[in-house]
Structures are given as structure tokens and as C-alpha cells.
Design a protein that fits this description.
Chain lengths: ~400, ~400
């Protein structure tokens, strides 16, 4: 924690010079100045042009579905006679796009598109991608984000977005996953700027009936397991015989998986249970409050209606998590480790802020002022009382 | 920070015993066990019965107005054909109600009523009030919160709610202001449970025209200043002569104020400016993003329409902040220190969580699966690809 705090302090006090220094030291670059890590609009466009037409079409389909969904849930201003509640997009949104072992253009779409739908117009993106072109850059180009993209990563990138440097604009909120240093830096700057969440290991809770094809569920488990070694699955089923079939097919299919090393490690985190009653099932679902809850069961409508706490609920055989990770629409940035009990997945509304506008009229003032005065007095806040009381005279200007 | 972390660790490992111990040590109590700090329903009722009918009526008026407003802004489920977004109240909400130099029943109403409107049914309240009866207890009684009220405070109260003890139920979210130890404890448990926000010193930005009665504005400034020594006002006006009048009346009226010592100390934090252009004004408003923005000006409609970032906006002479602190309706728990640029005041919606329910049908699956498969492959997540691809066979059960 101290090391990360030192990086943040250095970026705050020395700006670009510290970002250059830490990036050269930790990421093996030879940047001489901050302009060297700016990703030009040309590089972003070249990344897009380089993609196959099929992959371009897939990214466009995904973007369109995310947009349509996010528009459908975007809050509308509540305009009341005397009190309104109004929304405003954040002025500047910052994104951290991981770029280590793998590149995740889907994460670009799942974080940037909600911000676009919210009405955000100023974007800052940091990503530790040092290649000339990349599918991450291509996804940014598709989103129209071509200014203020910087090929930097780690805690120094988070600090630069939180406090700004000569080159990197200060943002109001930082979104996106990262490694342990990134997560710690986000935790430390939280409050000075907003952050989306601190993501823990990914998890899925599957509840399936005995009629579901075993191999489909095995691939759902493998899909969860291939993320990283800390990923895990809670599999709830109705009979031991079905659980045994799953176990047997996991063993049979594992050796054929391309990411079998990661899968083999992470499936040791899995929990398999037989659930006897519906009450027990619902209690488990809401207690675990898993990031992904996948219900593939003849009674799925009834069960899902009782789920209160989940990152996202995937109902039915054709709504497996993997399709939700890419093209269903809702963001795949979801609360983990039971935090769905009190937090929700990223949406367009998370890129807005809101405030009440209170416009009490003279007649209403006359009705409610006595209550306000009495409470102020009871709390010993006498100037509050006077500030209310003094307005018993007429209004100074032409107000209803 | 270390001291607070130690308190939290002790409460986590030793439960009630640590809460009793710290409360006796820091708050001068002689509790022998945890039942000693439970506030009985009888004590809560006695506190209510003891209030004057006028004060009871004032609390009821306030509660009714908060309820009406919060209902008007409560989010409704979005039920889509294949994707829905649904809300659920938090299972257990926790409240910290300060009880030091003064008692603030308005804070009880401004935090508990939004949770009631959200549909929360389980409440835990901690408050360092050790009297037999109090107006804080009365406000809780009015809200129907009579179980799990505990007369404890400080970091140990926050830790007890965050992790639970034998006597104090674990909560999902902790709301309410407190001293520096409480604020630090909230910061440290954040993530294990949700917290509302870390409140900084209170502030107001006033923009007034020259026709507003000078004394009304002076009392608005005093009302802000009487909170505590760190409170502050930004006063923006149109002419030096008006600013001079304000300064003269502050000097004249200060000696007559009951809380003059606090006021005298905190008005030294104030900033007074003459604003020349509308553009300049709007830029200042959105840059400062004050907790309270009070616009009392002949062009107030036009100006307020351009405010993007504020804790709450008070428009007009009869919507002074003091009335908003008590009876307007919106919660007075608001973001401070510029954090309104990325966060909002407490509402009923903050006591709910939400999740998408994704129910992709077979026909939609056929349309979007290829895009999902291609992106999974591009990201090297081959089991994701297989989990999507394997469902090209027929559905196992009767699903549309």
C-alpha cells in the first residue's frame, strides 16, 4: 500500500515526469516525454482498419446492443411543481483498460458505451498497450474515442487520471479493471474522484435441472474457470447423479481445452451442492449474491422472480453467461464476492450525477416554515430558525 | 488510522465484549454486557410521548414531505422483452446518528425515511446517546424503528454494524455522519459493506441580486456558519456596494447571535466575490460544485438551468437552505467539497440495489451468437466460445 501511495504522491507532485519515469521502470519503455505515450488518432484508426470485416461487424453488433439496452434504462429527469430531480453527465470520464496477458476489446465497449449513452463527451483512456496497433485501440476507434488515449498502465496511470498532469486531463470518475496495483491505487484515490468498484475474482452460481445437456453446463463452468486461477463456480443441482455426470465430463473434456492449465487450477475453487428445497435454494442464491447467477431450469421464471441479490441474472439455456459477457447488452462489469448485496453492475446511469432543485413558493413556505423553525430551534440552530423566519416579509422580486 | 483499524479488528474478533470495552473506555459508560446498550421500544416511545404536540407535528410534517418526495423519484423496474432491470431494497440498513454536542432528529428523518420508502424492513441504529429519552429516539419511534437501536458510538459502532456481533446484526450499508473516528472507520469498512459517503465540512454557494433583503442573506450565511468552525460560504454578488452592505450587517448582527462563537470562527473561511459575466458565474458554479447552491436572483430560472454540478440547488428567496435542511423534502445528506461533480445526495434509491435479468430467446441467440463467438475467440477465451457454440442444438426443455 505504501509503495502505491508513493507512486500516487510522485505523480501528483511531479506530473508527466513521474509517469514517464515509472512507465519506463515498470513497463520497460524508453519514453523520453509524455507525448511519446499518447496514442494518435491515426494509430487508433489503423487498428480498426486492420480488423477483419467479420470482427468489425461483431464489435458493431455488440456496441449497438449495449447502446439499445443502456438507453432503455437511462433515468429521466423528474420535473415536479416545486421540487425536481435532474441528471447531468459527468464532465470527464476516465477508463483503465487492462493490457497484460490478453486484450479485452469487450471491456472497452462494456465501459465506454454506457458513458457515451449517459452523454459524456470528454474521455481519458489509459491502457498499458505498447503495440503499434491493437484490438483495444480498434474498439476505442469504433466508440469515437480518439483523443486523450495514453499507452500507460499501473498505479501511475490511475494517479494521472485522478489528479491530472500537464498532458493527461484530470477526470471525475475512473472505471475499469486492473491488477492488484491498479486496484490499490483506485482504492486510495477514491473520494478525490469516483471509482466504479474494486473487482474481486469472477464467479458464477449455476442452478440447473437434470434435463440440461451436461456438456453445455461443463462449458459454462470452463468459461468461468478460464478467466484466471481465482475464478470459481457454485454449481447447484437437483440430484447426485447429475452432479456426477458433470464431474465425469469435466474430467473427460479438460485435456482438450486450450486454456486447460488455468481451468485445472481454478476448478479447484468450485463448490458443487445438491439443493433439496426451493426455500433453501432461494436462501443460498441471495446469501451468496454471486456476480453471475445462471438459472437453467424448468421453473426458471418462478425462481428468478425470487432472486434479490445478484450481479446479473442469466435466465434460461440461451442466456448463458458467455453470451452476456459479449453481446446481450448489460455491462459485464459486475459486483463480485457478495457485494451485489449492496452494489450493482456498471450502467449508463453511473456516468451521471444528479441533484434536487428546490423551488419552494411563497404559499408553500407559509405552510411549512413553522415546522422548519421549530425543528431548528429544537436542534439549537438558531440562525437556521432566523433564516426561515425573516422571510415572512414580502418577496423582494417578482416571485410567485 | 492504525488506532481505528485496531478497534475494528477487535470488534471483528471479540464481538460484543470489544464493543462494551471500548464504549466504557471512550464514552465513560459502565456497561456490563451488550444488552445494557440496547435501547428498548419503551424508551423510544417515552421519548416520543415527552415531546410537545407542536414538535410532534413538525416531525410528522417533515416525515410526510420527505416521503412524498422520495416516492416521486423512486426508480421503477424496467421490464423488457428479453432484458429487464429490476430493483430490490437492501436487506439490512445501518444508521449512525451523531449524539455529541447536539442532537439532530432531522438527520434521523433525512436518512431513515428514504430507506423506508425504498422498502427496507430491517434497520440497525447506533447512536452515542446515553440519556433515558431524547429527541433522536423520538424521531426513530416516529419512523417505526424500534428494534435494534443501540446506544453506542464511535469506530466500535461502525465496526459492529459492518461485521455484526452476537447482539448487533450485520448490515449491508452504513449511513449517517460522525466525527473523525467514525469517518475513518467508515472508510476502512467500505467495500465489505456499502457506506453513504465521507462527509467533509458543510458549505454553501450563494448568488444573489441587489434587490434581495440584506438581512435575509446575512442569516443564510449565519445559518451555514453556525454548523461548526469548518463551515464556509461562497457569496457571489453583482456589485461591491451590495457586498459591503452584507459585510456591515454581518458585523452588526453577529454579537446578537446565540452561536456567535462558532459563527465568528467559521465566517473567516468565507469567500466573497463580484461576478461580472454570466459565463463566469456558470463556470464558477460548476467548478466549485458546492454542497448547497442557493440562487436568489431575478434570472434564477435561466441560471439554475445551467447548473450541472451541485449537492442540491435552492432556487429563489423562499427556498433558502435552512428550509431545505428540514422540511422541503430532499435529504440534507449531500456531497461536500466538490464531490457533487461525481456523486449525489442521499435518496431512497441509494437503499436499493439492482440487477439485469437477461433472458435471451432461441431466435435472438441465433442472431447474436456468431458475434459473441468471434469476440470470445479474438480475446482467446475459447471456453466462452464453446459455451456459446454448443447451444446450436435444440433447447433441452420447453423454452421459446
Amino acid at each position: 500500500m505504501l509503495a502505491v501511495q508513493n507512486i500516487i504522491n510522485d505523480v501528483r507532485s511531479q506530473g508527466d515526469a513521474a509517469v514517464v519515469d515509472y512507465t519506463n521502470r515498470f513497463d520497460g519503455q524508453n519514453y523520453t516525454n509524455a507525448e511519446a505515450f499518447r496514442v494518435s488518432p491515426d494509430r487508433l484508426k489503423a487498428s480498426w482498419d486492420e480488423l477483419s470485416p467479420e470482427l468489425q461487424a461483431s464489435l458493431k453488433t455488440t456496441k449497438a446492443r449495449i447502446e439499445a439496452y443502456e438507453r432503455s434504462i437511462l433515468y429521466q429527469d423528474m420535473i415536479g411543481e416545486e421540487i425536481s430531480y435532474v441528471y447531468h453527465p459527468l464532465e470527464v470520464a476516465g477508463f483503465y483498460i487492462p493490457g497484460g496477458k490478453a486484450l479485452y476489446p469487450s471491456t472497452v465497449l462494456m465501459t465506454v458505451v454506457p458513458a457515451l449513452v449517459a452523454g459524456v463527451t470528454n474521455f481519458v483512456v489509459t491502457t498499458p498497450v505498447f503495440a503499434d496497433t491493437s484490438i483495444t485501440f480498434a474498439a476505442l476507434y469504433l466508440c469515437g474515442v480518439t483523443d486523450n488515449v495514453f499507452a500507460i498502465g499501473g498505479a501511475q496511470a490511475i494517479a494521472a487520471m485522478a489528479y491530472g498532469t500537464e498532458t493527461i486531463p484530470q477526470v471525475d470518475k475512473i472505471c475499469g479493471p486492473g491488477n492488484a496495483f491498479v486496484a490499490m491505487a483506485k482504492r486510495l484515490v477514491n473520494g478525490d474522484v469516483a471509482i466504479d468498484a474494486i473487482a474481486g475474482p469472477s464467479e458464477i452460481l449455476l442452478y440447473v435441472d437434470d434435463s440440461i445437456p451436461v456438456d453445455a453446463i461443463v462449458y459454462d463452468i470452463f468459461a468461468q474457470a478460464e478467466h484466471d486461477q481465482a475464478a470459481r463456480t457454485f454449481l447447484l443441482c437437483e440430484s447426485q447423479s447429475f452432479a456426477d455426470k458433470i464431474a465425469a465430463r469435466i474430467e473427460a473434456l479438460l485435456p482438450t481445452q486450450k486454456r486447460r492449465d488455468i481451468i485445472q487450477a481454478s476448478i479447484t475453487n468450485n463448490h458443487y451442492s445438491i439443493v433439496d428445497t426451493r426455500e433453501h435454494l432461494i436462501a443460498i442464491l441471495n446469501e451468496i449474491a454471486a456476480e453471475h447467477v445462471s438459472i437453467q431450469h424448468r421453473d426458471q421464471d418462478e425462481i428468478v422472480a425470487q432472486v434479490q441479490y445478484a450481479g446479473a441474472v442469466f435466465k434460461g439455456y440461451y442466456a448463458m453467461e458467455a453470451i452476456g459477457d459479449y453481446v446481450a447488452g448489460p455491462s459485464h462489469v459486475l459486483p463480485t464476492g457478495g457485494t451485489a448485496r449492496f452494489s450493482h453492475g456498471l450502467t449508463s446511469n453511473d456516468f451521471r450525477t444528479a441533484n434536487a432543485v428546490i423551488n419552494i413558493q411563497h404559499a408553500t413556505y407559509d405552510q411549512i416554515a413553522p415546522a422548519g423553525e421549530l425543528l431548528a430551534e429544537a436542534e439549537g440552530l438558531y440562525a437556521h430558525q432566523a433564516s426561515i423566519a425573516i422571510r415572512k416579509a414580502e418577496s423582494p422580486y417578482d416571485e410567485k
